[in-house]
Write a structure and sequence with these properties.
It is built from 21 helices and 16 strands. It has helices at 2-26, 47-50, 204-221, 228-241, 246-271, 273-276, 292-309, 329-332, 335-349, 357-363, 369-392, 405-427, 434-453, 460-484, 499-507, 522-532, 535-543, 558-566, 595-605, 611-631, 644-647; strands spanning 51-58, 66-74, 79-81, 98-101, 107-109, 114-115, 120-123, 132-137, 139-148, 159-168, 173-184, 495-496, 512-517, 547-552, 574-578, 587-590. The strands form 2 sheets. Strands 1, 2, 3, 4, 5, 6, 7, 8, 9, 10 and 11 form an 11-stranded mixed β-sheet that branches. The radius of gyration is 32 Å and the shape is globular. 35% of the residues are buried.
């Protein structure tokens, strides 16, 4: 009797250690997040002064293909990270440089970009200890082979594209998102390839070495913090499989491995996209997490899974369901659920990188698609090895307790681990997308509650209605959240408000529109979205040469508070339009607005004045004040006795 109890206690301690390891590994990365004041900081607007781009392309000559050259001139004291900049074992590290060309152009990339000037390297000891930093300073030129369409005229062709990354000095970083336009030119001399670069896929020895490294790296990937939540779920599956027929256990683990490998196949295709001719940009390992839609989708998926683990609803996939009764898991386990679990495990693993994987994935940059598939496949097989072994020898997990109430408790604990993963995923989002994503999660929460509210034994009609209602509500909430709350490109050319900017614009005879707003003011955001930042308003602003100033009252600002008081207001929203003629009254529009009200007020204010008329208007408005000053008696000095005239 004591032995089973001791075994359960040891198992509980092991699971607790697993959960604690995951939580501690997930959350420290927040300290280095650019959103929370870590190493990466700065503003987008500063990027232009740190790095400037020049671009040109050469035409094909003889057996040589056309080449696209992108040159970055880097400000003194700053550096940019190399295209092949690696990550730490938990997937963290600086933002590597990526270059892409716009779609819909008569040009196709034939290979990855390479740097002519090698990067400077050193081992970081501060933000990411032990990570090799690969940095370009002063100037760097990248080149890539391209293919021009047969009917393209090189003399008139302009190749448009973008470069993203970060420019950093010793204390901070500025995110880069720069565009380039390449014209035909002479290019630059390309240095001969080194011995390492000349290594071809025909070198079976090197391929075998890389494959073995990939196998080992994939095996270690199972211990990375990204996948620990799903590994815990797999422990539940192993426990449930105890006592089953060996052939059935092996089939379930094969299904899990098939799901895992299918994602690696897709990732290999994305990594070789340029060489295969199906994309203008190749995506490396973990690069999916640089795409906002993917990050939001993964956040939503992990959150929905956490709610399932906590019993809010049931995932309707055999083998993936989190039943309220742990014993039911044995009746629901199926190949499709195991396959989906394998897919989900690999998607969670992609932001992580373990030992050996950096050089392995870097090796694929200069290799043909076949080698890329081999490398990704070897990593996938390495990650699959534990499950293949357990499927072949189920006795390896005989130490697990028999299915029982402990599985329900572990499932709930894993739900909280998944919620910690959601917090980590939020750290990968830009600050502007925190609120839209959070609002979307509330919609998903309601949908899961609605689906879980209808019991599994209810009529099919009721269950379908709950699903349809939940999906519709979650979709609407997500759509409205990102339309109304996410940042969008402003139609109007806003400038920051200050009394000096307002005075200078009015002195030049400009009509001035000032929008008093704040990010905590819902009505302000509604006005901005649906009444002010509209195409019709922009056309009238441009026609009348109106200066637009944005008075952001999100944080305490006495200057804006004083400006509101001068307009006899103590609240926002408020839109103030100052006519070009200083003698005219300011037009004030408070509360909820419509595009018609804004257009009418701009028409009433009229256009800006030219310089002669502006000077005349200023003199005319100033004349009454000068006459009043001349007629007024001179004020006595401070402390002097007033005269009789002053007393009267």
């Amino acid at each position: 009797m004591a032995q089973p109890v001791l075994r359960r206690l040891l198992f509980g301690a092991a699971i607790t250690a697993l959960v604690a390891a995951h939580a501690s590994a997930q959350l420290p990365g927040l300290g280095r997040s650019p959103l929370l004041g870590g190493r990466l900081g700065g503003t987008l607007g500063a990027s232009e002064s740190r790095v400037t781009l020049k671009a040109e392309f050469t035409e094909p000559a003889g057996d040589s293909s056309a080449l696209l050259f992108i040159t970055a001139e880097i400000a003194p004291g700053y550096h940019v990270y190399a295209i092949d900049q690696g990550k730490t074992a938990d997937g963290e590290g600086p933002k590597e440089t990526t270059i892409s060309i716009a779609e819909g152009q008569p040009v196709k990339l034939l290979g990855p970009f390479k740097a002519i000037q090698p990067p400077q390297t050193h081992i970081d000891q501060k933000a990411w200890p032990g990570l090799e930093m690969r940095e370009h300073v002063d100037e760097v030129t990248w080149y890539a082979p391209i293919e021009l369409a047969a009917d393209a005229n090189a003399a008139d062709l302009v190749i448009n594209g973008a470069l993203s990354g970060s420019a950093c000095d010793e204390s901070s970083c500025v995110m880069l998102n720069l565009e380039f336009a390449a014209h035909a030119g002479t290019g630059m001399p390309i240095p001969p390839p080194t011995a390492a670069a000349e290594q071809t896929p025909a070198s079976h020895g090197s391929l075998l070495t890389v494959a073995l490294y990939g196998l080992l790296g994939g095996l270690i990937l199972n211990l990375m913090p990204c996948v620990l939540p799903v590994i815990g779920l797999k422990v539940l599956s192993f426990a449930e499989q105890g006592g089953r027929a060996r052939a059935k256990v092996f089939r379930l683990n094969l299904a899990y491995v098939a799901g895992l490998l299918s994602v690696f196949l897709v990732l290999a295709t994305l990594a070789a996209g340029v060489q295969l001719g199906i994309a203008n940009e190749s995506l490396g390992w973990g690069e999916l997490y640089t795409k906002l839609p993917f990050k939001v989708a993964m956040t939503a998926l992990v959150f929905a899974m956490a709610l399932s683990f906590l019993g809010v609803w049931e995932i309707p996939i055999p083998g993936f369901a989190s039943s309220h009764h742990a014993m039911e898991l044995s009746r629901q386990e199926g190949p499709f659920g195991a396959f989906c679990m394998g897919v989900f495990t690999t998607l969670l693993a992609t932001p992580c990188s373990g030992p050996f994987l950096g050089p392995v994935f870097g090796y694929t940059l200069s290799q043909p698609p076949g080698v890329t598939y081999l490398v990704f496949g070897s990593v996938g097989v390495g990650m699959s090895l534990p499950y293949l072994l357990i499927g072949a020898f189920p006795s390896l997990v005989s130490w697990l307790p028999k299915p029982g109430q402990w599985m329900e408790t572990l499932k709930h604990l894993l739900g909280f681990v998944l919620l910690a993963t959601v917090v980590w995923l939020f750290s990968t989002l830009g600050a502007d997308y925190f609120i839209p994503t959070l609002a979307t999660l509330f919609g998903i929460w309601f949908a899961c509650w609605l689906i879980g509210y209808v019991p599994a034994y209810a009529p099919m009609k009721s269950r379908v209605a709950a699903w349809v209602g939940g999906v519709v509500v979650a979709s609407l909430v997500g759509f409205i959240s990102f339309v109304a709350l996410a940042p969008s490109e402003s139609e109007l050319p806003w400038q920051p408000y200050s009394p000096q900017a307002l005075a200078a614009a009015r002195a030049e005879g400009k009509t001035v529109l000032v929008d008093f707003t704040a990010n905590w003011c819902w009505t302000c955001k509604t006005n901005s979205k649906f009444a002010i930042n509209r195409k019709q308003v922009k056309q009238l602003v441009e026609k009348n040469d109106v200066v637009t100033l944005l008075a952001d009252w999100s944080d305490q600002n006495d200057t804006i508070k004083q400006a509101l008081a001068e307009l006899n207001s103590r609240s926002i929203p408020l839109l103030a339009i100052y006519p070009a003629d200083p003698s005219r009254e300011v037009i004030v529009l408070p509360d909820l607005l419509t595009p018609g009200k804004v257009l009418e007020a701009l028409d009433q204010a009229g256009p800006s004045l030219d310089q002669p008329n502006a000077a005349m208007a200023n003199e005319t408005s100033a004349a009454p004040f000068e006459q009043a000053d001349a007629a007024a008696p001179e004020a006595p000095e401070f402390g002097a006795m007033p005269t009789d005239t002053a007393v009267r």
